[in-house]
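Record 1 of the preview.
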Amino acid sequence: MADRLTREKRSWNMSHIRNKDTAIEIKVRKFLFSKGYRYRKNDSKLPGKPDIVLPKYKTVIFVHGCYWHRHPGCKNCTTPSTNTDFWIQKFNKNVQNDILHKQQLEQFGWHVITLWECEIENNFDKTMECVLQDLRRQLNNQSG
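->
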């Protein structure tokens, strides 16, 4: 299906998509804060500027949009039908950067959690319970 917007309008739309403080990031942060977890946001000193940094737990959380970060098998992981080569290169670069940043963080001793947009939207309580369990395990591993 061809794009119904002009090239200029599509460019304007794409330039206004937020890359931090998205609704799903805010939802995750509010939940963590309500449970007593304190964090930093988008720490530029760390590879990939993780969305949430929990120094006490030596843990970072990336909140990935399924579309932009290519969530495998997700229905939200579509590819535009126009300018396809450009988009495939763009998406591949995003995925490669995600892998590189995770490897770098792990080499520095950080525990990395990746949350996907669809998991947060479709099953928030279960997703966040898994995060809490993971954080408890991290704290136990550090003290034990």
